[in-house]
Amino acid sequence: MPSFSAAMVVNLFIFVPVCVLQLGVSGVDPDIVLVSAMEGDSVTLHTDVKTNQQEKIKWYFKDTRIAQISGDLSKTCTDVECNEGTERFRDRLKLDHQTGSLTITNITNTDSGLYKLQIISSNSITQKIFSITVHDVPGAELNKMLAKSVKEGESVTLDPAVMKNPSDLMTWYFNYTFIAKINGDPSKICRDDQCEDADERFRGRLKLDHQTGSLTITNTRTTDSGLYHLEIVTNSSSIRRRHIISIFSVPGYSECNSVYCLLYLFAIAAIFVLLFVPGGCCRKRTHKTSILDSSTNDLVFYPFTEEEFYFQYV
């Protein structure tokens, strides 16, 4: 079985959605909304409406009703509640009671297919079709892409692993707290302290790639460890992707992060070289000291090494 590198997996994931979009131009109904996701993502299909008591919204997957919402709460259902014995999604469906939008959490490749939205009002029935393609990435490669572990002080980059569309809104969260966003409008691109209501813990340490939407954290700290979410919002759908970062501490890094500390360490290293390193100016050179012999009134000389001289007289 062929092996895949992380770069090959990312390139494959980026390439496939482009092919689907090209097919949509020539051979697929233009009214179908194309959605591309990776296993483990949360995908939301938007109705683009606000429900009222008179409307009934139904969702179908491959002609099987999987969710429904209306003014009558007793008729609101998801998955097995709508069709007894059908447990494909196993509590992975969520309905927004304000808009009727459907969210599929922890999506898998078996969830790929056509989803139909039906909005029934007193005088009309409107429909929208979504085509979801879920890409199955080998577990080891997926871990390399979405889970990172670095030393404290190093930089780490979170890659969206998707081709950025200029009209998409990309928003980054840390432990569900908003930290950065980027879209086609340069005036609305911001990060940490530049964003209104954003968490300022990363002040001056975040960088956004305007071409890819990737997020880089510089001068990392152990407190940066945790769960990061990337939300990609389009006109009719959104994807939420998880990234996990683990920052492990280096002994002495936090305590020795100043110029004075570095100078101190340099001085210690210089003394070590002078005293102990072969070729150092003070290595094992023999010194002599003299003591007066009282019985003969002669001076007697005793040799000793540089280390003994250092510890005795310095």
Automatic annotation (TrEMBL):
Positions of the Ig-like domain: 30-133
SUPFAM superfamilies: Immunoglobulin (SSF48726)
Protein name: Uncharacterized protein LOC113091746 isoform X1
InterPro entries linked: Ig-like_dom, Ig-like_dom_sf, Ig-like_fold, Ig_sub, Ig_V-set
Natural source organism: Carassius auratus (Goldfish)
TM segment ranges: 262-282
SMART domains for this protein: IG (SM00409)
Keywords: Membrane, Signal, Transmembrane, Transmembrane helix
